[in-house]
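Reviewer 2 asked us to include a model.

Predict the structure of this chain.
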Amino acid sequence: MQMTLAGVLYFVSLMFLENTGQKRKHDLGGNKRKKQMKGLKCSHVPFSGHTYSQREQIRQEMRNLTAVPTDRTIILIWFWPFNYKFSPECIGSDLHGLHFTDNRSLYNQAHLVFFHHRDIRTDLSNMPKEPRPWFQKWVWMNKESPANCHRIPQATSLFNLTNNYRLDSTVPGRYGEITQRKTAKDDFKLPAKDKLVCWIVSSWNQNHKRVHFYNELKKHIHIHTYGAAFGMKVSRDEGVQLITSCKFYLSFENSISKDYITEKVYNPLSMGTVPVVLGPSRNNYEEHIPGSSFIHFEDFDTPKKLADRLHYLDQNQEEYMSYFLWRREFVAKRGSWGMDVCRTYKYMENAPGFQTINNLNKWFWG
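Predicted model (structure tokens):
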């Protein structure tokens, strides 16, 4: 085995010198990698701010090749999102042969490395300093809207995949999803309701569109308000109880951006409450959730007309219940970081080969 590997590495070094411009093929499976070694062509993926001679590049590639595990796929979390640690949420056999870690000493062996955008320094000083192994893919992970995170000029062409709430992301990492039942069921029971309209808000900005709309809406209907913005912090469990107890929940996003539909929508949908949404267009919402499951603020000319509609539904139970008919065939689920990681892993198992995001900043920030 040693002689064979040495021969392969020698072949790789020769091909590297002659074919530095050619793209590499990737493979996550250990057995698949062995089969591809004979035809392997490598080129160094440069990291901004670090330069190496061709000889040093070849040496580094050879060290990386000898470190590749043959039986496990290693997923490395370089930054925990907001320092929140989680486990992969894979289905059944998806976990077979998967090693999930935050141990940076395994960098040279990792097949996927996840980088949470909000934790990347603008000068990239907290990113890996070593060259990227030929088989490794970098994943840009971000669930914040463009208005709530900064662009990093040097990172615009640094990543191979995107894991983001956008539907056109390489692997969409949404805040939730609507899944179809295998068989239709009339099993929905409306939770007890003792409030008409509720809103839980942590941050407050007078310039936000949602604040302007709320200030007008509250003139025409009583709104039960909670959260740090109103001096009434609530725990996760308390939040669930509050949302469940309301007929309508104000699912007002803190910024308006394509596909930016957060837990503010998926929480009430999964808890038996009708979300009143303020965010992207109705058409964009309907790409994510059933059109009959929510009320869009733009469906009404004025906040008063919206308030009138909510009062009407409060007095007409049959029409109110029509907002839950979608539950017969679908189920609302909240998303998770662990689910995103597993979907990215599954995507890479079947991905066609080398790929890169050429202009991340233009794609996301415009």
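The chain has a mean pLDDT of 84. The longest helix spans residues 2-18. We have added this to the supplementary material.
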